[in-house]
Amino acid sequence: MNATDADRYYREVIEIMKSQCDVYASMHPDKNFLNTYLTILNFLQNYSLKDLDTLLKKSASVRDLQKSFNISEPEISTLSCDEIKSIVKRQDIPKKILEKIASERFFVPIGSVKSCNKTQLIEKILNQVENEQIHSTIASVAGRSDFIRKQQTMEDVRLSSRDKDEVS
């Protein structure tokens, strides 16, 4: 089917819908139903088939995108820094997902999150990731230092005990 035929069929469907309006009015005495029907019909009449097709495709792609980023709160809290970086750096990530990550993973206040544009929010999240990595490194180094200190202390105690045993 070529574009001209498709457009003609689209217009024919709208004409059929118009003619059905009286039938629906007699079948459904509920004014809300008829008003909804007329609103949809009016909407369709104001768009060309090409515009409607573009609108529907765009709407579908946004829904698919949101589904692909549908991350629950427990999942957000378990994401690694590298996973967060890769999610945040995607060009197609919705701002709502960024807001969710910032507020639920890094406890950024909602007011602060809402006041940021998408670019600022990405920067804020990446800064939080960097801070977390730095704190993790510090904790790791501190943990090794404590472990080494404990090992040295235990060795000192052993040596001290051995020296006492040798003196006795």
Give a written overview of the molecule.
By secondary structure, this protein is mostly helical. 84% of the residues lie in helices and 0% in strands. The chain has eight helices and no strands. The chain has helices spanning 3-27, 31-45, 49-68, 73-78, 81-88, 95-105, 110-115, 118-167. The N and C termini lie far apart (105 Å).
> Could you list the spans in which at least 5 consecutive residues all have pLDDT below 50?
none
Task: Estimate the helix proportion, in percent.
Answer: over 70%
* Topology, number of strands: 0
Average pLDDT, to the nearest integer? 78
Give me a quick take on this structure.
The protein has 168 residues and is mainly alpha-helical.
Question: What labels describe this entry?
Answer:
168 residues; mainly alpha; 84% helix
How are the elements arranged and paired?
Elements (H helix, E strand, L loop, with lengths): L2 H25 L3 H15 L3 H20 L4 H6 L2 H8 L6 H11 L4 H6 L2 H50 L1
Helix pairs in contact: 1-2, 5-8, 6-8
